[in-house]
Amino acid sequence: MATHDAESSARNARKKPFYRTLWGQVLIGVAIGIILGYLRPQTAIAMKPLGDAFIRVISMIITLVIFCTIVTGIAGMGDLKKVGRVGGKALLYFEVVSTIALLIGLVVGNLVQTGAGFNANPATLNAAAVTNYAGAAKTQTVTDFLMHIIPTTVVDAFARGDILEVVFISVLFGLAMSVMGKRVKPLVETIEGLTQAVFGVVNLVMKAAPIGAFGAMAFTIGAYGLKSLGPLAKLVSAVWLTSIFFVLIVLGAICWASGFGIIRFLAYIKEEIILCLTLSSSEPALPTLMEKMEKLGCSKALVGLVVPTGYTFNTDGSSIYMTLAALFVAQATNIHLTIGQQLTIFAVAVLTSKGASGVQGAAFIALVGTLMVIPSIPVAGMALILGVDRFMSMARATTNMIANGVATVVLSRWEHELDRSTLRRNLGLPFELATAPLEPATAARKSVG
Questions:
Q1: Domain ranges of the chain
Q2: Helix, strand or coil for residue 400?
Q3: 267-283, pLDDT tens digit by residue?
Q4: Is 418 helix (H, G, I), strand (E, B) or coil?
Q5: What stretch of H or E contains 403?
Q6: Among the listed residues 101, 106, 100, the one whose alpha carbon sits nearest the alpha carbon of residue 327
Q7: What 3-state DSSP class applies to 359?
Q8: Staple partner for 25: which of 205, 210, 257, 329, CB 3.0–4.6 Å?
């Protein structure tokens, strides 16, 4: 116990003042952005390039982060059966949890009736605005989705920054290197060195996060203003409150069953939460989330495989939004949906939500494609929520990121790839857990070291 007290004292002594921490500086940037957006809207709108530039710089290196971590992770596992087992468990977990999120959105949409009384006339809505924003959105068949996984060329996947395609290529390379063993050991070591360099770039770029957060928030408030929330406050509130419920109750129960608390976990990833809330995108938080999951005690191999895959297949925040917003559009245009039609939307959303990963506005585009399967719902009705989509994007991006962090810890525990003492130290769990033995795989790695 004395050792634990000494550790706590040392940790507290090392704490930086609020204004010198990254999350503190980001919050300050957000606050200044809100004030500027409220007082000088036109000036605030001109700050948009600051947020866009930060997102672009992070997006520039995400594909490298994913490739390096997945390749070295799979090559480090050595056991192809284990790779398949981890991948299978991850996909099953993602599907179950995201389906729960879709169902929760559907239930809340029916209970709260967010669009009731809106009485919008589809003929007067700006369908062109929806088309311009969503582009050539179309319904996606299972075949389309599976074909999309395979890039035209290796270079094309990296050039377009498509996470799913990069994951596919990375898994193939990792499997090949795992089979070849010692013959490619120098190449694996080179990629591991590149991984360290890439994360060094990430840490350098993250110093500009407060500036990016300031630009993004200033633009949001300046362009849309808090007044725009008035008519659609019920929908925006429903998305936010349902997302909070999902995180605290559903993910909280999963965390509790896995031996750690959701509140402590949220405190551990507070920088990533603030980034997602501010930038309305989960992609900028991907590199640092992976780094933090390793520091939390999850094995590098599992983090490299689970987090990038989860960004495509585990979009819980987007799932909540899609069913809630679909019902809102129907209710606002006085379209009565039968149980069969609602289940159709649900079934299609199970597939289309998988394309709503990371990129800002991707869930809106996926929802346009989903609504196309129910001809009675006017897609032009999406114009009603276009102006406040960014406010809802904050909630869904943050929920997506948190859900993937939780999934990584849970799957690490299932696979005995979690160092409990490291988890306890980082989350500040009760000291009793310190006496718990390491998971077998972790203990083996430490003994070898």
A1: 2-448
A2: helix
A3: 999 989 988 888 888 88
A4: strand
A5: helix 389-414
A6: 106
A7: coil
A8: 210
